[in-house]
Write a structure and sequence with these properties.
The chain is of the alpha+beta class. The chain is built from 1 helix and 13 strands, in the order H-E-E-E-E-E-E-E-E-E-E-E-E-E. The chain has 2 domains: 86 residues, SH3 Domains (SH3 type barrels); 51 residues, no CATH class. The strands form 4 sheets. Strands 6-5-4-1-7 form a 5-stranded antiparallel sheet, with no helix packed on it. The chain has a 4-stranded antiparallel sheet with strand order 10-12-11-13, with no helix packed on it. Strands 2-3 form a two-stranded antiparallel sheet. The N terminus is likely disordered.
Length: 161
């Protein structure tokens, strides 16, 4: 009887190990490497967009890549992410390539905006520094990429550049 119990226990342990291995493989994260990346219904650039995910967002890997697409899960949504816009390691905190967007090194204070871009805090300068988008009422220059909240702690916007 003990021999049958041991054999049954071994079989259950084997199945449990297989299931656990499969689940842990499914729990692997991928990271989004573009700004506002589309998660699509099917593995095609022409497919319906289910949701958009920001730069550096971790998504749960399901399978792939197959023909350049990963199947992923984001919250309750399962869809497809282009392999060109995914990484197995979290990308650096930096400005993501956008047309006409200034690129800044991470020095001094700043913030990450709604697009996931790192933006330096306003600075004092005799003239508009490269990449400045507005002059604040206190004389500082802002690098904001959106009008909302620009110069909010600096007396408002004096002029848009």
């Amino acid at each position: 009887m003990f021999k049958h119990f041991r054999a049954a226990f071994s079989a259950v342990a084997c199945v449990a190990t297989l299931v656990c291995s499969t689940l842990s493989a499914q729990a692997t994260n991928l990271y989004v490497t573009g700004t506002k990346v589309n998660i699509r219904e099917k593995p095609s650039a022409d497919s319906h967009v289910l949701i958009k995910v920001p730069y550096r967002k971790a998504v749960t890997f399901i399978k792939g890549p197959t023909n350049g697409w990963y199947q992923v899960k984001v919250g309750d949504t399962t869809g497809y992410l282009s392999a060109q816009l995914a990484s197995t390691t979290a990308p650096d905190r930096k400005v993501v390539s956008k047309p006409n967007a200034p690129h800044f090194a991470h020095s001094g204070s700043g913030y990450t905006n709604v697009d996931g871009n790192w933006i330096p805090s306003p600075v004092q300068a005799n003239s508009a520094p490269a990449g400045a988008t507005a002059q604040c009422n206190d004389g500082t220059y802002s690098f904001s990429q959106h009008h909302r909240g620009t110069c909010s702690h600096h007396g408002g916007v004096r002029a848009w550049l």
